[in-house]
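FORM 12-B: Structure-to-Sequence Request
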């Protein structure tokens, strides 16, 4: 059992007790805070999600950098004539696509253009649906040929 406090104790003993009580309160507060942090599953999940997001962004940046380096090395290893020809061909393809777009705008009837625009919008919104429809179409064509 502990000794009862006597009036004969000094002020320093009382001060020591106050300091011990304050220190114990502080430690208890830290313990309660740590337990509350562990119990806050939502905050822990958000912290983990932020950590994963940061790591993914870092990895994506590294991959972009590696891809750019690889593309630069490939470009540097190609003879100049190949690079020039590829650039020229890409320019021609862009010009042909623009010309086809202008012809489409000039010659296609408005209802057909409206339906095509609607189909393109659906295809952009649902690319998996477009891929599935294309796969079915290819399967039907091959089946018909057999």
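FORM 12-B RESPONSE
SEQUENCE OUT:
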């Amino acid at each position: 059992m502990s000794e009862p406090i006597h009036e004969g104790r000094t002020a320093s003993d009382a001060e020591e007790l106050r300091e011990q009580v304050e220190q114990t309160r502080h430690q208890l507060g830290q313990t309660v805070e740590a337990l509350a942090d562990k119990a806050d599953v939502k905050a822990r999940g958000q912290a983990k999600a932020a950590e994963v997001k940061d790591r993914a962004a870092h990895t994506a940046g590294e991959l972009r950098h590696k891809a750019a380096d690889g593309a630069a090395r490939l470009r540097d290893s190609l003879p100049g004539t190949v690079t020039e020809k590829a650039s020229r061909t890409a320019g021609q393809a862009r010009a042909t696509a623009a010309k086809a777009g202008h012809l489409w705008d000039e010659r296609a009837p408005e209802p057909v253009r409206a339906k095509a625009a609607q189909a393109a919008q659906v295809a952009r919104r649902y690319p998996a649906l477009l891929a599935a429809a294309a796969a079915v179409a290819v399967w039907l064509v091959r089946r018909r040929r057999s």
